[in-house]
Every structure is written in C-alpha cells, then in structure tokens.
Amino acid sequence: MTAWDQVLELLGSPLMQRALLAAVLVGAAAPVVGTFLVQRRMALLGDGIGHVALTGVALGWLVGSWAGLVPQDTLALPGAVVAAVVGSIVIELVRERGRTSGDLALALMFYGGIAGGVLLIKLAGGTNANLISYLFGSISTVSTADLWWTAALAVLVLGVGVGLRTALFAVSHDEEFARASGLPVRLLSMLVATIAALTVTIAMRVVGLLLVSALMIVPVAIAQLFARSFNRTMTLASVIGVVVSVAGLVLTYWQDIPPGATIVVLAIGVYAVAATLQPVLRRPPPPQDPHPDMVDDVLLVDDVDDADGATVRRPSPTT
Amino acid sequence: MSTPVIEATGLGVTLGGQPILDGIDLVVPAGEVLALLGANGSGKSTLVRSLLGVVTRTAGDVRLFGAPLGPSAPWDRIGYVPQRLPAAAGVPATAYEVVTSGLLHGRTLRPHRGHKRRALDALADVGLADRAFHRVQELSGGQQQRVLIARALVRDPDLLVLDEPTSGIDIPTQATFVDTVSRLHDAGTTVVVILHELGPFSSLIDRAVVLRHGRVAHDGPPPRARGEHAGEWHDHTHAHPDPEPPRTGPSLSVEVNP
Ligand SMILES: Nc1ncnc2c1ncn2[C@@H]1O[C@H](COP(=O)(O)OP(=O)(O)OP(=O)(O)O)[C@@H](O)[C@H]1O
Ligand SMILES: [Mg+2]
C-alpha cells in the first residue's frame, strides 16, 4: 500500500473526517483566544476554567441521570459550557477587584473544580473512569452532533476574537487608556473570559480538560519567538495550532497513542526546536543604526565649532 | 459662554480607604491651556484619571463637553497621554498597533476605513515613522512616551490631557512636541497638562492649578519664573528650523499660600 493510498483511506473514514474537522477548528480557535490570555498575563486562566468545567460535566451527568436521560452524559457538554462560562466570569470579577488575589482565585478553582467533579460523578452513579475521557480527551468518540456544536462555537470564538481583535487588544494592552477612551472595558474583558470558556469546552473533546490550556498557550509561545506584532503572533499561533492538531491526530491513526497528549507533546517539541533555532531563524532587523537619526540633545564642545545650522552656538563665557 | 470642556464640582476620590482627592472644583473653558502642578503624590494623576473616568469618584460630578461621564460622553474628542506605558505584556505589539488602538473610543469598537494612514501619520508626527513596525517593548523609554503621544493625537482630539508628557524626552523632541501642542492650541484644542517644570510649555500656559494634599492650593495665573533657568547661558537646540524658537522654561517655584 502506497502512502497515497493510506492518506485516501484515512480521509475516507467518517470517524477520521469528523475528528480532523474538529481538530482543525479547535486548533485554529484555541490560540486566537490564547493570544489575548497571554497578553493579559492570564495564561493559566484556561487551566482554571478547564478544572471548573469538570464539575460542569459531572453536574450535567447528575442532572441527566436524575432526569432519566439516555445516555447519561447527554447533558455533559451543556453542563461544561455553563460551568466554564460562570467560572470564567467569576475569575474576571475577582481579577477586576485587585490583581493580587487573581491567582488565589485560580488556585481555588483548580482544586474545587476537580474535587467537585469527582464527588458529583460518584453521586450521579458514575465512576472516575467516566471522567477520564473528559480529562484527557477522546476525539475518536466525536459524534456528528458534537461536531456541529464544536463548529458553531469555534466559528463564534473566531468571529469575536478576530473581528474585535483591535478592541480586545486595546483593553488587554492598556486598560487605563481603554477606560479613558470610554471603551466598555468590563464588557470586553468578560468577552475574553467567555470566549476562553467556550474554547475550553470545545477543546475538551480533542485534547481533554487537563491539556486544553496547552493548545491555547503553547502555539502563542512559539509564535511570539518570531513575530514582531500582535496580529502576526495571533495568525502564526493559529496556523501552528492547526498544524500540530492535525499532525498529532494523523499520528494516532497509525499508532495506538492518545491523540490529546500527542498533540500537546508535539506542540511542546516544536516550541523546544523553535526556541533553540530562534537566534538563527529570526529575521534580522534591517541593517540600520539603532540610534535614531536626530540632532543630539547634548552639546559637545566639538559641536560648538560645527558649522551645522541645527545646533545653536552657545556664547562662550570668555567673550 | 459656550459649555466648558471640563466641569468638575465637589470631586472626591478615595483609593485604598484613603481620601486622595477632596472637594475639587475645576472648570476648564474651551481653548484654554491649563497646567496642573504639585508635588509627587499630591494627586495630579488621580485628578485627571478621575476626570476621564479611569478611577471611580466617591463624590461630586464630572462633565466633559457638557455630557456626564459614560457611554454618551464625546470620547472621540478626548485624547489622553498617561504617565507611563503599562508593564510589558506577554505578546509583542508594534508601535503601529498601539497607535491604532487609539482610534477606538466609546462604542467604536472597530477602526474605520483609512485607519492605517492615520496611525502612520500620527507616528510620523512624533518622529517615529521608521519605528512604526518595531515592537514597542524594544523602543527606548522616550520613544515609548512618543508612541503614547501619537496614540492620543491620532483621533484629533479637542481636549488633550497630558500626564507629564515630556518626562524622559530629549529636548529637541520636547520642542517638536510643544510645537505640535501649540499648533493644536491655535486650532482651538483645550489642553490640560501635568508638569513639574513649566519648561518649554511656559509660553503656552494660560492658567495653573496647584494641588496640595489632594486639594486645590492655587488656581490662577501660572507661577512666575524664578530666573536662574532663563539666563542668557541657557540655550536651546532645535530639531528643525523654527520661525519662533521655543523660549526656555523658567523652573516652577511652588510658593503659594492657600
Ligand atoms: N491605586 C491606588 N491605591 C491607593 N493609593 C493610591 C493609588 N493610586 C495613587 N494612590 C495615592 O494617591 C496619591 C496621589 O497619587 P497621584 O498618582 O495622583 O500623584 P501625582 O500627583 O500624580 O504624583 P507624581 O508627581 O509622582 O506623578 C499618592 O499618595 C498615592 O500613593
Ligand atoms: Mg502622576
């Protein structure tokens, strides 16, 4: 069987088609949100939300089994969406009050989210094993309905993140100036937190809640090694996100390895290589004098005798 | 008379449980250049930040161009230069991107057509045309300050609020900047500027407000020059030929009896 046949076979499998589409959408959307999070110095927000979403999954499960739904986890994804959005808004509110307590709030969510999830899943009659697929992802179980959800949310996240990027950049870059410009700072901050929460829930199926943040942050870390501007960082990170997600997924088609972990390890590997090669690869700045071409502020003795009209002749004290 | 550009009555601000500003009344008519003076920590920055709604006030009322602070205030007419750039963020941003963010205000959340030209023109006005696509984090402190000035000027404001705009800026650039402000002033722009030394601005300033311990200690003509800086040995260099060379600044002596 030639390599080409293998590719055709891979693309022919409906399961793989769904998984690939999900990987492309998530791989493109997660780094866009991640760029704003890194800029706001909240790289771990995705992690905090991911932990809280686990409680949401268990809560959805609990409600599902209580209502007698089949399968029991029908409400797991909606539960995760609700918990993630609520959690992200709480974190944003805490951050707004004062920056110092922000990481404490995150810590509380990390522990509370996991503990709550484990406790609730037991009450719902499930086992911790049921949670594993959410914690580490199970892209092979993506159903057509899941795919529609993922696609809709990914389009929403990309639309907001790319369409409002200048405004979201403005509040993330300099909140004080954004306020002094009358921008709806609070609304925009909440928007960043909300699209982060939505990204966590759509990436849950691909890489799992524990590794979601990696897909949001690591491509940004790679991109900013090379990009000079915010927009370039975002675009490059998004491309890297798609490439590692698809590559990681395709590897699992031939090797029996977990896709989520493969994608993340691949991304970190790319980061390690990129960081090592960065001094060689980065476009050198244009060869010019880094000092601006300006009349010197400081008058040197030599300048006094200069015929240069730009400097004002200082009257000599001896005349 | 037309509506004042800034109208604050009984303004009070409490930060961290401590009263920082108390009972400030300030009216700035259109076209005036007002200097805000005072020692470190006297509340100058807090005053302008509360006038622009950056910090929430605990008492009093603020109106800008006759409109209360909020979504309906004419934010496109206001340009603000903060005292410093926020701590470097994790993601690189170019000077051009920072200036472009100055084109957003109020409910305008996306830059309009032609924003690229405007942002580049504003950068050229502060002499940073060749640095437009450099990372701001990699510019010098004074160059960063000029990026902040360009960000405020890019929307052609009718009210310019400057928090120590010339600290850390070399003298030729200061002179260029003063030229720019004086040109805007001639076109009718109102200017509120926080200064420690009147310096090159002295010829422009119509009125000075001196803050002390969060209260207005003096409101009236700018303090007189003290002399030693205005001597004949104090000369200026200028970046470009100028029909009227900027006068050198007298240093400020804050000797005011309340
Ligand atoms: N966020 C804050 N929380 C608590 N106190 C604050 C806060 N911001 C400022 N202050 C206090 O308010 C007082 C006035 O600060 P402000 O920055 O307005 O001074 P300033 O006149 O601008 O001084 P400078 O000349 O140094 O810029 C200071 O004593 C400062 O400690
Ligand atoms: Mg200040």
Automatic annotation (TrEMBL), chain A:
GO cellular component: ATP-binding cassette (ABC) transporter complex
Keywords, ordered alphabetically: Membrane, Transmembrane, Transmembrane helix, Transport
Signal peptide segment: none
Transmembrane stretches, start-end: 20-38, 50-69, 75-94, 106-127, 147-171, 183-203, 209-227, 234-254, 260-281
Membrane topology: Multi-pass membrane protein
Localization annotation: Cell membrane; Membrane
Example of a GO biological process term: response to zinc ion
Protein name: ABC transporter
Organism, scientific name: Cellulomonas terrae
Automatic annotation (TrEMBL), chain B:
PROSITE patterns: ABC_TRANSPORTER_1, ABC_TRANSPORTER_2
Gene3D superfamilies for this protein: P-loop containing nucleotide triphosphate hydrolases (3.40.50.300)
GO MF term set: ATP binding; ATP hydrolysis activity
Domain ABC transporter: 6-238
Positions of region (Disordered): 216-258
Keywords (A to Z) from UniProt: ATP-binding, Nucleotide-binding, Transport
Pfam families: ABC_tran (PF00005)
Keyword Nucleotide-binding attached: yes
InterPro entries: AAA+_ATPase (IPR003593), ABC_transporter-like_ATP-bd (IPR003439), ABC_transporter-like_CS (IPR017871), Metal_Ion_Import_ABC (IPR050153), P-loop_NTPase (IPR027417)
Compositionally biased spans, kind Basic and acidic residues: 225-245
Protein name: ABC transporter
